[in-house]
Sequence to fold (319 residues):
Amino acid sequence: MVYKNVKGRIFDIQGYAVHDGPGIRTTVFTKGCPLRCLWCHSPESQHREFELGYLPVKCIGADVCQNACLDACPEGAVARDEPVEALDKSGLIQKAKIDREKCTNCLQCTEVCITKALYASGWDTTVDEVYERLLKDRGFFKDGGGVTISGGEPMAQFDFTCNLAKRLKDSGIHICLDTTGFAATELFAKILPYIDLFLYDIKHMDTKMHKKITGVGNEQILKNARFLAEHGAALQIRVPVIPKLTDKRANLRQTAEFCASLGDAVKLVQLLPYHKTGRMKYERLGWRYKLTNVEPPADEFMNNILAMFQSFGLNCQLH
Ligand code: SF4
Ligand code: SF4
Fold:
């Protein structure tokens, strides 16, 4: 199959993934997304540009590093934090402290930080580089596993995503595309032959509410879901259940109706209850987490919603 070795920007490759499609998989996370879901678990995926990430736990202290990051910063955005006990209890150290108001994301400090406490949230690569990396995991692709291309929104880097899918398809590797569905229908038509299973999000059935909680309306997303269903795609629909945002029973019932209307294309519906695990990532980027007062939905509520989806004849499970 003819493919092009185009460039792409990613922020992670995770092996042994068991929640990104069937079996055991390796997931490639592309950087950049047109949506801004309030509950986003991967804030580092949102912007196409690199950001400065900071993991204080990895910082060994400015004395040891001889002020490397402080000296590297042209904006004076890095200072010494209050003294704290070193991890090995050898005494007090002063870790780096970032002033996000002053930081311009130039990333010069990441080049001198030997422990990678300061890091860039992503890197540029090529289809061939990612392919070679993925091949190393091939022995783990068990029980229908393979590769998942996720994000961010992988369709936002269409050339990279489509050419990587072509390259993998040639090798007989099972490919999932984890998508928000927010891209031009022509692009979905082009990539369809190379994708074995679409992991497809339906976040809200009311377009005004969808725009309020994700930044975009849902028309294109619903249109693309139907297009894919009518053109032979296999869909695994993912429905986030976020208290106060998507969990109204009427909305979830409409979502179930919509999924059922897509017919046999829908192989599975997964209900994704809200969880808090993404919060730490906001801290690393120096961003404010907006859903501080939201708690995960109760098991009983999730089981009721599960039963409601199943009553539409859908193969549905809790994620
Ligand atoms: S990324 Fe921010 S903190 Fe780091 S050197 Fe540049 S301006 Fe300074
Ligand atoms: S952030 Fe990195 S370079 Fe700066 S003091 Fe900590 S370990 Fe050293």
Summary: The chain has two domains: 7-49+122-318, 52-120. DSSP finds ten helices and 15 strands in the chain. Residues 59-62, 65, 68-69, 95-96, 112-113, 115, 117-118 surround iron/sulfur cluster (ligand 2) (CB under 6 Å). The domain at 52-120 is CATH 3.30.70.20 (Alpha-Beta Plaits).
